[in-house]
Amino acid sequence: MKKENQIQLPILRSSYDNLTKSEKRIADYILENAKSFIEQTVSDIAVNTDSSEVTVSRFCKKLGFSGLQGLKIALAGEIFSPDETVYQDINVDDTYDVIAGKIFQNISDGLQDTLKLLDFKDVEKAVQILSNAKRIVAYGFGNSATVCRDIETRFIRFGIPVQAYCDSHQQFTSASLLTDKDVVIAVSHTGESIELLESIKIAQNSKAKIIAITSYARSSLTKLANIALNGMGREVHYRSEAVASRLIHMAIIDLLYTGMAIKNHDSYMKNISKMREVIARKRL
């Protein structure tokens, strides 16, 4: 993890000379206290920078963010760089209790980070878009493919056609046949998979709506999406194998699933009842 005084958020550096005196105090505070900044409320920041809540809001918008939440997400993505490991990697001579401690602690911390950084207005919008979808497709590769399969298995319970595509050629074909009534859920840890980005561009040309699930707020995938939900996984690695992000992304999918179940309660419960009845016939 980068030290707080090493934070190089590009947009902050490039905009610095155009900031007012009070806004520069906020910028300086971020550069010196990056990690604690993402856990503070707008009131805390105003007090700590000798400014006002209005100034903090204006500062965020001047940097191109819709509000404080957007700045926090971008800052967290800078602190926890995709090329760096936040905590110590798993070592070949670690005992199982040490391995378990590293993995479980980082998953727990990643979930808490995600809880702080999620924009729940975007979550609500995503639930609305998914509820109105004629068809849902999920795109992802590698570890993200398992998340896509989970989407396929679970979201079909809403009575909406759902399909996971984890092969680039299938994604391209699927994306070309989408309409403005369809939704793509694109899952990617880095948000920089070239083939996935190409699939999303094709889907955009088909007028489909894009919901991105990724770990980096400034990724190319985030920029292409209509809505981006970022999961801040604090990765523990063994020979570069990411462990936490898949579970963090699944937790975000759980959130969307639960939101849809609540929003479509009556039809959802009818579907669940039908499913249980059929499954019960297959049991001894």
Automatic annotation (TrEMBL):
<dbReference type="InterPro" id="IPR047640">
    <property type="entry name" value="RpiR-like"/>
</dbReference>
<dbReference type="InterPro" id="IPR035472">
    <property type="entry name" value="RpiR-like_SIS"/>
</dbReference>
<dbReference type="InterPro" id="IPR001347">
    <property type="entry name" value="SIS_dom"/>
</dbReference>
<dbReference type="GO" id="GO:0003700">
    <property type="term" value="F:DNA-binding transcription factor activity"/>
</dbReference>
<feature type="domain" description="HTH rpiR-type">
    <location>
        <begin position="6"/>
        <end position="82"/>
    </location>
</feature>
<dbReference type="Pfam" id="PF01418">
    <property type="entry name" value="HTH_6"/>
</dbReference>
<keyword id="KW-0238">DNA-binding</keyword>
<keyword id="KW-0804">Transcription</keyword>
<dbReference type="GO" id="GO:1901135">
    <property type="term" value="P:carbohydrate derivative metabolic process"/>
</dbReference>
<dbReference type="InterPro" id="IPR036388">
    <property type="entry name" value="WH-like_DNA-bd_sf"/>
</dbReference>
<dbReference type="InterPro" id="IPR000281">
    <property type="entry name" value="HTH_RpiR"/>
</dbReference>
<keyword id="KW-0805">Transcription regulation</keyword>
<dbReference type="InterPro" id="IPR009057">
    <property type="entry name" value="Homeodomain-like_sf"/>
</dbReference>
<dbReference type="InterPro" id="IPR046348">
    <property type="entry name" value="SIS_dom_sf"/>
</dbReference>
<dbReference type="Pfam" id="PF01380">
    <property type="entry name" value="SIS"/>
</dbReference>
<dbReference type="GO" id="GO:0097367">
    <property type="term" value="F:carbohydrate derivative binding"/>
</dbReference>
<protein>
    <submittedName>
        <fullName>RpiR family transcriptional regulator</fullName>
    </submittedName>
</protein>
<feature type="domain" description="SIS">
    <location>
        <begin position="126"/>
        <end position="266"/>
    </location>
</feature>
<dbReference type="GO" id="GO:0003677">
    <property type="term" value="F:DNA binding"/>
</dbReference>
